[in-house]
Amino acid sequence: MSDIKAKLHALCVAYVQSRMQAAEQAIAEAQQAQNDDTKSSAGDKYETGREMAQQETNRNLAQLNEANKLMVALNQISFNGESKKAENGSVIITNNGNFYLAISAGVLTLDGINYFAVSAASPIGYNLKDKIAGDKFILNEKTYQIQSIL
């Protein structure tokens, strides 16, 4: 069972790494565009182009920072062993879907089965946290019953 948790954890790490690489590439491209922008006879156009490139760099730096925070959160999650209650690193099987309580990374497909990677701070994660098999909760007018926790 911890094999599923380890594989889901690895998928989350790959998700965060791809976000980090995309942000780093966008930063490099924006900085290159800023460096390539030469002063033309229209000085305002030059300054506007540089400012837009700087704003793009700042936006991508913020995305990189968020991705780094996700990686730190992932590094703190233990994915070994089974849990009696839902906690970070747990795989929770419900009547309305399978969840991996870690970070918000969307749908992860493993061996043909979909798992929703959710953060404990998300509405669904908040409702899942500390629940045990057999517990129920209602979210968005939908009843979830926990069938098992890995």
What does this structure look like?
The protein is of the alpha+beta class and 150 residues long. The protein is 49% helix and 23% strand. The protein is built from three helices and six strands, in the order ααββββαββ. The protein has helices at residues 2-36, 43-75, 123-128, and strands at residues 91-94, 97-102, 106-110, 113-119, 136-139, 142-149. The protein is elongated. The protein starts with a helix and ends with a strand. The model has no long low-confidence stretch (mean pLDDT 90).
In short:
It is built from 3 helices and 6 strands. With 150 residues, the chain is α+β, with helices and mostly antiparallel strands. It is elongated.
Measured as a percent range, the helix fraction is 40-55%
| Structural class label | alpha+beta
The end-to-end span amounts to 6 Å
**Stretches with pLDDT under 50, minimum 5 residues:** none
Q: Main β-sheet: number of strands, strand sense, barrel status?
A: 6 strands, mixed
Number of domains: 2
Rg is 21 Å
Mean pLDDT across residues: 90
* β-sheet strand percentage: 15-25%
What's the shape? elongated
Number of helices: 3
Helix and strand run:
HHEEEEHEE
* Spatial sequence of strands, sheet with the most strands: 3-4-2-1-6-5
**Total beta strands:** 6
Biased composition (Basic and acidic residues): 36-50
Region (Disordered): 28-56
Protein name: 3-oxoacyl-ACP synthase
